[in-house]
Amino acid sequence: MRFHTPKTFEQAAAIAAGASGLTRFLAGGTDVLVQLRAAIVTPDDLIDLKHIPGVKDIARTTEGGWRIGIAVSGAELGRHAGVCADWPGVVEGMQLVGSTQVQGRATLVGNLCNGSPAADSVPGMMAAGAMVSVIGPQGNRAVAVEDIPAGPSRTTLLPGEVITAIILPPRGAHGGDAYLRFIPRTEMDIAVVGVAVNLRRDGARIIEARIALGAVAPKILLVPAAAQAIIGTALDAVALAALSAAAIAASTPISDKRGTATFRKDIVGVLVQRAARIAYTRAEGASA
Amino acid sequence: MSKIHVSTTVNGDAVEFLADPRDTLLDCLRDQLGLTGTKEGCGTGDCGACSVQLDGVLVCSCLVLGAEAEGKTVATVEGLSNGPDLHPLQRKFIEHAALQCGFCTPGILVAANALLTQNPDPTEVEVRYWLAGNLCRCTGYDKIIRAVMDAGAEMRGTH
For residue B44, what is the DSSP state? Predict the structure, then answer.
């Protein structure tokens, strides 16, 4: 295994594009090192991205959103007052990943690129409408987070492509988001079901919504039908019932050691209502 | 396979070692530097026995490559005591009998020290959540939590 420490993303992409064997990018390492030890993935070239300037930075975009560097850890994200105020659902999803020790290293981009259908930070990013900046042999492109997962442990990124940042859009007025997951204990577990809701209100009425579901399909899903179920409503009982039904209908879970498919479908219908209520309440106070 | 020369600072001392690119920081601490206080439990970031601070951040050293320590500062359990004078956390762990087999203890001491450094007066709930990634199969945790709370109180001078 060769260990590389490029100083620019262009160099990192060039190393990956020129590699003949297996390549992995290293940011927090909380998945890569586990796979290395278990001999699931033994890269020929391991490319540490943390020597590239700016990868630890969180900065306002000119549009009023946030640009989050690829090596920003969960702990660092959680300490950033601006992102926490604008996108609490994104932050609370990331902060559910692993222990204090894992939070010291784990990153949003790593969670996304690991490709787990149960990744806790990904539904929040999808619901928020986050984009990733990508650099590769064909040049730069911006990709919506929902277009990155391709299935368990797989992404749509092409050989030689690397994500250079996550871009969260401006929060805007009267918006709120929330992430909830179900696990059978209080801490240190993998989501049986995860749900993120992001919405905007005009008075009591919901005028925009994006809803993402985790651990109920081969990849994390953005579910427009669930969003449509609450847009135009004041999140009354009828809207909540329609929301629940839409989330259940979109779910195609498997049965595994963490829960049966039937249980997961039941839970997604409950959690999506709870997350919507939290987002709706948060939107009432949000003006940033 | 070529080895990587790594210069880093461990417990205040400048050290150098040669790391295979696949070696974890845990491997390097134990096998290259002889610092065997840091333990390998699971090796996959689940148990916390290998906890160290890397540039002041609490991490599992099994999830850090040795090569990543280049130019950084590492703090292990060996750096907690001041010569023969035990750190308050170490004394309180003995007083409260907060260990049985002791294998998880170095990681918990390092993790608890990181907590008390940034939050000198944590609630019991905060201590329990902070240490959720440190598994102990002997004690049932209560004595550990009491020892950490008591050490915090002593360090704040509220005894």
Answer: S
